[in-house]
TrEMBL record, chain A:
UniProt keywords, alphabetically: Methyltransferase, Transferase
Chain ranges of the NFACT protein RNA binding domain: 258-359
Pfam families tied to this protein: NFACT-R_2, tRNA_Me_trans
One example GO MF annotation: methyltransferase activity
Name of the protein described by the UniProt record: tRNA (5-methylaminomethyl-2-thiouridylate)-methyltransferase
One GO BP annotation of this record: methylation
Classification via InterPro entries: NFACT-R_2, Rossmann-like_a/b/a_fold
From TrEMBL, chain B:
Identification of the protein by name: Recombinase
Family that this chain belongs to: Belongs to the sulfur carrier protein TusA family.
Higher taxonomy: Bacteria, Pseudomonadati, Pseudomonadota, Gammaproteobacteria, Kangiellales
Domain UPF0033 residue range list: 5-73
InterPro entries referenced in this protein's UniProt entry, alphabetically: TusA-like, TusA-like_sf
Top-rank taxon, per record: Bacteria
Residue stretches in coiled coil: none
Length: 361, 73
């Protein structure tokens, strides 16, 4: 271990310096943590759960994804590094970041810059706490890698507004930035940090190869659903229909599942597309009115919003369209409210043409 | 033997992991925690989290779509 570079002499015993690394589960944060770990620093990981994380949920829900590996990539990264991982639920506090981003959104409803500032802020509050006693924070940021948050001019903004200041080290692009405290104090050797920039992933792949990392995750839109155009569209629809910008955790979970169809502004249907989604939606039957087909096989559907009897009939006809009885004259459906009270009705399935394209959220 | 229990049914990963982590914080070394989950993702995530944080999964049982872990801090 290169103890010389990671310790200071404070009398008899050199102090082991400690860094907390923001771990998303992607390659960059894996490499950033590894680079610092290689310099003899004690590294632990921190991972934040916002509710919009791609990790976990989707592969647990959809049956078609069942064969894919179900690992949580942040846990996988921590295991590769041999470090502890602290997972923090920030989903409640995070609402304010999504609803009121000071620095605005990216291409979709992704408040990437505010998000990074918030996460580094949360990390430093945790890291400096007496019982944890970390010296600095590591992120996998690379200048020019992301159009909204990872730019030359945003790097100092994140450091300043998060409160981490010069205790925030970006090992993958440190040489393109002013030296931070860990570099100035000699806790880490700046010469052994990197100068990556731009959108190319080649330098990261080469470094991964050097360290012997294989099979790392490379999510196309990063690790957050808010960078996904279709997801953002559904979230915007939810706010529009409610006439206010707010959400609960269940709302954003349900946006990840099923076909969302809004035939009228006051309500929408969430129609499962397969067995896995059926099982998932079943867990919400005590919170929503649900419809399932009785005379034919068909999807479980939740109704979200305010609706009257006519609306329920309309919804039932749409559900019937997605059932095995779509060509039948009548389909019998059971409508059950969240208290478990139910009734049965026969409806003619809607034709494909009657389900308007603009209803699909 | 007294055993602490944690209900993580109907929670999706990573919530069961987070709840387990927070519950273990309150326990002393050597104490047991029984965690009941329904998300199949926990079959991978909880043992991995335990390995990297140096806790022991004493047993894992699956029945009726429920997964019950016993974890030793």
């Amino acid at each position: 271990m290169t103890q010389e570079t990671s310790s200071v002499n404070t009398g008899d015993k050199p102090k082991q310096r400690k860094a907390v690394a923001l771990i998303s589960g992607g390659l960059d944060s894996l490499l950033a943590a590894k680079v610092v770990q290689e310099q003899g620093i004690h590294v632990e990981g921190i991972n934040f759960y916002t509710g919009f994380c791609v990790e976990g949920h989707t592969h647990a829900i959809r049956k078609k994804d069942k064969d894919k590996q179900k690992r949580n990539n942040s846990l996988w990264v921590a295991e590769q590094l041999g470090i502890k991982l602290h997972i923090i639920d920030i989903s409640e506090e995070y609402k304010d970041i999504v609803l009121n981003p000071k620095h605005g959104y990216g291409a979709n409803l992704n408040p990437c810059l505010d998000c990074k500032i918030f996460m580094v802020n949360q990390a430093q509050a945790w890291a400096w706490a007496e019982e944890n006693g970390f010296d600095f924070i590591i992120t996998g940021e690379v200048i020019g890698q992301r159009p909204k948050s990872q730019r030359k001019e945003t790097m100092p903004i994140i450091a300043r507004e998060s409160g981490a200041d010069d205790r925030l080290l970006r090992p993958l692009c440190a040489k393109n930035l002013m030296p931070t405290l860990p570099e100035r104090e000699g806790w880490v050797n700046r010469d052994e940090l990197y100068d990556f920039s731009g959108r190319s992933r080649k330098p990261q792949f080469e470094l991964a190869k050097k360290f012997g990392f294989e099979d790392f995750a490379q999510p196309a839109g990063g690790c957050c659903f808010l960078t996904d155009a279709n997801y953002s569209k559904k979230l915007a629809d939810l706010w529009d229909a409610r006439g206010e910008r707010r959400y609960e955790l269940d709302d954003i979970m349900l946006l990840k599942v099923g076909r969302h169809i809004r035939p009228k502004k006051n309500f929408k249907l969430i129609v499962s597309r397969e067995e896995g989604e059926n099982n998932f939606l079943r867990g919400y039957k005590k919170q929503f009115t649900s419809i399932h087909t009785v005379s034919h096989g068909g999807p479980l559907t939740l109704l979200d919003g305010d609706f009257d009897k006519e609306d329920i009939k309309l919804a039932a006809q749409i559900v019937a369209r997605y059932s095995g009885g779509k060509n039948a004259d009548q389909v019998t459906v059971q409508v059950e409210n969240y208290k478990g009270t139910s009734f049965v009705m026969d409806v003619p399935p809607m034709s494909a043409d009657e389900i308007k394209q603009e209803w699909h959220v | 033997m007294s055993q602490n229990t944690l209900d993580c049914r109907n929670l999706l990963c990573p919530m069961p992991v987070i709840r387990t982590q927070n519950a273990l914080k309150e326990l002393s070394e050597g104490e047991l925690l029984e965690v009941t989950c329904t998300d199949p993702g926990t079959l991978s995530d909880i043992p991995t989290w335990c390995r990297i944080n140096h806790h022991e999964v004493v047993s894992t049982e699956e029945n009726n779509h429920e997964i019950v872990f016993v974890i030793k801090k």
